[in-house]
Amino acid sequence: MRTPIWCRGQASQVGDACHQVIDQLLEVNALYRLRAAQGVLGLRKKYGDTRLEAACRKAAAVGDPSYRAVKGILPTGIELMRQSSYLKGLLEIHIATFRSVAAMCKRSPHR
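Given the sequence above, the corresponding structure tokens read:
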């Protein structure tokens, strides 16, 4: 049976970040949040231990150690990106947006 004890044991096998997420999920109202913990651990089948651990680390780092956060991170592959490359990508998007807005302002007859 997949009890809170079982979930904590499985999370320990995945890694420290996964164990931290499962502990936080089960910290208060363990039986109420058991399905969320089981859901996080169920993601092992599709994504594997390494990616699940990385996603749990990312979710914990942003302060949202929930099933929904971990599940949302995995399909995008964000957990595989290093933080510096992720921030660099965001900066490039902002610079491109700023340049396009500046170009539109130069062409606008309503200056």
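The helical segments are 4-14, 16-26, 34-61, 67-76, 83-107. Try to locate this feature in the token string yourself.
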